[in-house]
Design brief:
mainly beta
Length: about 70
């Protein structure tokens, strides 16, 4: 099993959708630890982060806004 995550940013003005994906092995992976170590979140505004399993089932979804991450799923 692995954790995939997708960072998605959509601007309302032009409806542009940008995504970036990365894969991590399941062993020793923690969503909380991921966010604690992510330096980019203090600068993020309106970013959606999704975590998936091997079969691409969504495990969790968060909204990130200037260092704060809020669980949606």
């Amino acid at each position: 099993m692995r954790y995939d995550f997708s960072l998605t940013h959509q601007t309302l003005e032009n409806a542009a959708l940008r995504a970036w994906c990365c894969t991590y092995p399941e062993k020793d992976f923690s969503i909380e630890q991921y966010f604690d170590n992510a330096q980019w979140i203090s600068h993020a505004a309106g970013i959606e982060v999704r975590f998936y399993d091997d079969l691409e089932n969504i495990l969790a979804k968060y909204l990130v806004e200037r260092g704060q991450y809020i669980a949606v799923i």
